[in-house]
């Protein structure tokens, strides 16, 4: 037997998918801007291990010589990103959905269990299977909201370093704030990669819930029969 | 969590159909909107929907511009001894021998012609501020010269213009400034850099240093200042950048 369970409210599904499109535009247009002063890299001592990015990379992806266009897209999409993010946080707060998202006592322990389990370093499934989001998800989904706030603040600091000079100083000055803004972009891309991998692992039913709002759940075969088999532990991710 | 009984698999199919149709419409809509924006005619270097959006953001920035907020000043240890050179538009063939600064928009019909000594006769000031290039890099420099506000006191406009236009002598490079930013207490007519006379490639003999704007507004090889009632054209704003360009 199966039953339908409501999983994601309509508002959160819209905010999620709008954010996907807007963030994609921001990352792309941000790279058009970054090209004009592409100075960051991963350094080990005085050696640069990897430069973000080689010229050939910008050319191959058509990201060179488009600074003005990049700024125009970026300063358009930034409003959508901030508004959508604000509405998302408000919806979380009003609906009480935040309770599923914010880490609680024991979340760190479970997050470590999830991490080890997913890397096949731990056999036993993580605790807390009844929760909507496991400990790792709670940290990831709360963290990504904080990253969004960080991107808005560092963005404001480098967009208006004099009108918002207090904020810029708080973030270590113009150059450091620009670096933070860049690495936050990198963190979003990293988040995206792990998120997609986890959603693929979790399967269609889980993914479909982010579009439809509903998930099909197994109801354990119930009464009189012989000792019931333990209900299959379902993976919850995505 | 609410539960719905009565053949859940069938209900799931019905809900999925509806939701995925919405999703498909949203994908097509978003894609169509982006394609539409990207294929509009160009206005001042940008497709017009982006130009309008940028102008609106620009106006918003201008509304929030607060002239009393000063650009941070720095310790001499932060100075870039050899500041980066960028931008050759409007650079004369060679260093001008008889420098002239033409001022238009003062009382009377005739433009005024000033010499460097006229600017140097104004109270001399120094400041160590950052120059933010719109490309994303920054240089810290000790600038020396005369406050633009002192210049305006000495050579006042006729009436109360909202703008000031500045150009190189050949008119190849030109910037437009709102009077509010031009009159910012740190806007400088600059003839010295890091304690030495301004170098040619940095705009000698006279350039503008306006810390509340991106580098593109800090015009070099200044040859003409014109008080204006209408918003003057701006070299880079014609090429897709924002006109206000305030920091």
TrEMBL record, chain A:
Keywords: Cell membrane, Membrane, Transmembrane, Transmembrane helix
Name assigned to this protein: Cytochrome b/b6 domain-containing protein
Subcellular localization, as worded in the UniProt entry: Cell membrane
Gene Ontology molecular functions: electron transfer activity; heme binding
Source taxonomy: Bacteria, Bacillati, Armatimonadota, Fimbriimonadia, Fimbriimonadales
Gene3D superfamilies with a match to the protein in the record: Transmembrane di-heme cytochromes, Chain C
Entry's Gene Ontology BP terms: respiratory electron transport chain
Keyword Membrane found: yes
Highest taxon, organism lineage: Bacteria
Residue ranges annotated for the Cytochrome b561 bacterial/Ni-hydrogenase domain, each copy included: 8-213
UniProtKB/TrEMBL annotation, chain B:
Keywords on record: Membrane, Transmembrane, Transmembrane helix
Pfam families xref list: Oxidored_molyb
Transmembrane segments: 20-38
InterPro entries on file: OxRdtase_Mopterin-bd_dom, OxRdtase_Mopterin-bd_sf, TAT_signal
Domain Oxidoreductase molybdopterin-binding positions: 92-236
Protein name per Swiss-Prot or TrEMBL: Molybdopterin-dependent oxidoreductase
Species assigned in the record: Fimbriimonas ginsengisoli
């Amino acid at each position: 037997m199966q039953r339908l369970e409501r999983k994601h409210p309509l508002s959160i599904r819209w905010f999620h998918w709008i954010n996907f499109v807007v963030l994609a535009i921001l990352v792309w247009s941000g790279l058009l801007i970054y090209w004009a002063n592409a100075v960051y890299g991963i350094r080990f001592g005085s050696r640069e291990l990897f430069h973000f990015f080689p010229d050939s990379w910008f050319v191959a992806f058509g990201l060179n010589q488009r600074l003005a266009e990049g700024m125009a897209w970026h300063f358009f999409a930034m409003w959508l990103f901030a508004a959508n993010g604000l509405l998302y946080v408000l919806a979380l707060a009003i609906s009480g959905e935040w309770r599923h998202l914010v880490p609680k006592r024991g979340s760190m322990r479970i997050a470590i269990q999830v991490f080890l389990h997913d890397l096949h370093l731990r056999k036993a499934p993580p605790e807390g299977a009844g929760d909507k989001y496991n400990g790792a998800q709670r940290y990831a989904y709360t963290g990504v909201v904080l990253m969004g706030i960080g991107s808005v603040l560092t963005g404001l600091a480098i967009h208006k370093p004099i009108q918002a000079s207090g904020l810029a100083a708080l973030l270590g000055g113009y150059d450091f704030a620009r670096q933070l803004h860049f690495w936050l972009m990198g963190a979003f891309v990293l988040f995206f990669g792990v998120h997609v991998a986890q959603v693929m692992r979790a399967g269609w039913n889980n993914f479909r819930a982010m579009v439809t709002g509903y998930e099909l759940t197994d109801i354990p075969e119930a009464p009189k029969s012989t000792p019931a088999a333990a209900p299959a532990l379902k993976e919850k991710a995505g | 969590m609410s539960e719905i009984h009565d053949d859940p698999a069938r209900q799931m199919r019905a809900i999925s159909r509806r939701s995925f149709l919405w999703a498909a419409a949203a994908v097509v809509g978003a894609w169509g909107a982006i394609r539409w924006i990207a294929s509009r005619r160009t206005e001042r270097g940008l497709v017009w929907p982006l130009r309008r959006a940028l102008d609106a953001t620009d106006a918003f920035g201008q509304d929030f511009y607060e002239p009393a907020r000063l650009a941070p000043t720095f310790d001499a240890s932060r100075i870039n001894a050899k500041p980066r050179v960028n931008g050759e538009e409007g650079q004369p063939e060679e260093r001008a021998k008889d420098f002239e600064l033409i001022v238009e928009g003062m009382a009377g019909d005739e433009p005024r012609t000033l010499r460097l000594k006229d600017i140097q006769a104004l109270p001399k000031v120094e400041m160590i501020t950052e120059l933010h290039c719109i490309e994303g890099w920054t240089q810290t420099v000790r600038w020396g010269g005369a406050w633009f506000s002192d210049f305006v006191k000495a050579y006042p406009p006729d009436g109360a213009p909202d703008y000031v236009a500045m150009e190189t002598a050949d008119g190849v490079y030109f910037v437009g400034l709102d009077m509010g930013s031009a009159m910012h207490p740190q806007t400088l007519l600059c003839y010295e850099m890091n304690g030495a006379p301004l170098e040619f490639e940095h705009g000698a003999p006279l350039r503008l240093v306006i810390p509340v704007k991106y580098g593109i507004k800090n015009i070099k090889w200044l040859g003409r200042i014109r008080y204006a009632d209408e918003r003057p054209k701006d070299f880079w704003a014609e090429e897709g950048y924002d006109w206000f360009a305030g920091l």
